[in-house]
Design a protein that fits this description.
The chain is 35% helix and 24% strand. The chain is an alpha+beta fold. It folds into two domains: 198 residues, Nucleotidyltransferase, domain 5 (2-Layer Sandwich), CATH 3.30.420; 118 residues, no CATH class.
Length: 327
């Protein structure tokens, strides 16, 4: 059995654009643009490589942030990209039959399954996979926070030799890390490592954190954020329900809000949303002091969002908070 280290880049439509309003046969969070993969042999030797560009069918207008981050251009996709079905057939053929996928994070396989489903293609061949971050944590510092690829490379003294945010480059660097792990043991003990991660918080907490809690089984993002701003928005001191202000989105499915308790004042709330195996949403929630580093970051974000002279009594405040936050 070989291990296939997989990394992908995908396009997401700009919010409010015509592409974002498209109703697709299957809901997807991103359309795959590039696949990079590296094989690791049963002896844990880094072996052959695979890469392919995919010409988008649904989100043809490339998000400028995606283009800037990856270096991929629309003209390049038109000239070099393959149709999705052909690209996936080539990738599956290269992988072979008896393989286990390794990714650096939880998103790649989910995005891959969504895109396969969109085209009516078989998903079963990608069912056997593991998040290498969990194995890395279990075999290094035992933490529950998600490590960046760069920090994991630094921990092992691996120097970057390929470009970052390139699917093959990131897959290659991930393969170098995986080759230094005990993959057989890591996959055997993966359930335990995953449980430790679930019971912890997905990401490092900042100074001033007062409480942390994980919530499960929300049907979607809207329901999750609504609960975090409503029934689960409890004061860390007296447990009374607090009044939120406005969610601000951060990278990595994270959101922050400033909430107020009538008795104990303001607290900064940070949440991270992640998908459970059955498609429901899990929320990792941290509560911070109002004077914490995290709260100061929120204040800076508010300052950027509100033009000078704009006061809380404006029309913006009267709009539905949840509607604002999900736009």
């Amino acid at each position: 059995m070989d291990y296939i280290v997989l990394d992908m880049e995908w396009n997401q439509p700009w919010p409010g654009s015509p592409s974002a309003r498209k109703v697709l046969p299957v809901q997807i969070r991103g359309e795959i643009l590039q696949i990079g993969a590296v094989r690791i042999t049963p002896e844990q030797q880094v072996a052959d490589e695979f890469q392919v560009l995919i010409r988008p069918k649904y989100y043809r207008r490339l998000n400028r942030r995606v283009s800037k981050l990856t270096g991929i251009k629309e003209a390049q996709l038109r000239e070099e990209g393959l149709p999705m079905v052909e690209a996936m057939e080539r990738f599956r053929s290269w992988c072979g039959e008896d393989v286990t996928f390794l990714t650096w994070g939880f998103d790649d396989i989910t995005i891959l399954r969504e895109n396969l489903r969109l085209y009516g293609m078989d998903e079963s061949w990608v069912n056997r996979w593991f998040n290498a971050q969990m194995i890395f944590n279990a075999q290094t510092d035992g933490s529950t926070s998600q490590k960046s690829l760069k920090s994991a490379m630094e921990a092992f003294g691996i120097e970057a030799s390929r470009p970052a945010h390139d699917a093959l480059g990131d897959a290659y660097h991930t393969a170098l890390i995986c080759a230094r792990l005990d993959l057989e043991k890591g996959t055997r003990e993966y359930t335990q490592a995953l449980q430790s991660h679930v019971e912890g918080f997905h990401g490092a907490e900042l100074p001033g954190c007062l409480s942390r809690k994980v919530f499960y089984d929300y049907k979607d993002k809207r329901a999750a954020l609504s609960a975090m701003a409503g029934s689960e928005n409890k004061c860390p001191i007296c447990s009374r329900q607090m009044l939120g202000s406005r969610w601000f989105a951060q990278p990595g499915h994270r959101y922050m809000d400033l909430a107020a308790c009538p008795e104990h004042g303001k607290f900064l709330i940070r949440v991270r949303l992640s998908e459970q195996p059955e498609g429901l949403v899990r929320v990792s929630r941290l509560t911070y002091e109002a004077t914490s580093e995290a709260a100061q970051a929120y204040a800076r974000r508010v300052e950027k969002a509100e033009p000078e002279g704009k006061r809380p009594g404006s029309r913006r405040r009267r709009r539905s908070r949840l509607t604002e936050n999900l736009e």
